[in-house]
């Protein structure tokens, strides 16, 4: 099965307690596959969080997606006791997101 890393590069950052993940598809074909298969619901399930915590924003100028996962950083940089309060390593987790085959039309 294909994973997100096969089609895109991921960068991570934070805004308070929200994890921000930018997904940069390698080409137009990859963008189309990710548009269909990298959904808010799949990302939420992959991170084991409530689907309402995940928002996907399409960035049309740079042809990318930004996922905002609210409340997943355990309080953020100043409030978290975890080693990775910025969530930088979580970009690797998103890169392992399985992308099932396209649904027949």
List the helices and strands and how they pair.
Blueprint: E1 2-3, E2 8-15, E3 18-25, H1 28-37, H2 40-46, E4 54-59, E5 64-69, H3 90-95, E6 98-99
Antiparallel strand pairs: 1-6, 2-3, 3-5, 4-5
Overview of the structural elements:
This protein is α+β, with helices and mostly antiparallel strands and 105 residues long. It has one domain: Alpha-Beta Plaits, CATH 3.30.70. 22% of the residues lie in helices and 30% in strands. The chain contains three helices and six strands. The strands form two sheets. The protein has a four-stranded antiparallel β-sheet with strand order 2-3-5-4. It is globular. The protein starts with a strand and ends in a 6-residue tail after the last strand. The mean pLDDT is 85. It comes from Citricoccus nitrophenolicus. This is AtuA-like ferredoxin-fold domain-containing protein. Pfam families: AtuA_ferredoxin.
């Amino acid at each position: 099965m294909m994973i997100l890393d096969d089609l895109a590069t991921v960068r991570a950052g934070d805004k308070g307690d929200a994890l921000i993940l930018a997904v940069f598809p390698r080409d137009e074909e990859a963008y189309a596959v990710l548009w269909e298969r990298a959904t808010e619901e799949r990302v939420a399930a992959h991170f084991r969080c409530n689907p309402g915590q995940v928002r996907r924003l399409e960035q049309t100028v740079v042809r990318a997606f930004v996922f905002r996962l609210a409340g997943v950083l355990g309080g953020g940089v100043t409030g978290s006791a975890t080693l990775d309060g910025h969530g930088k390593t979580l970009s690797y987790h998103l890169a392992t997101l399985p992308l099932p085959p396209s649904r027949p039309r």
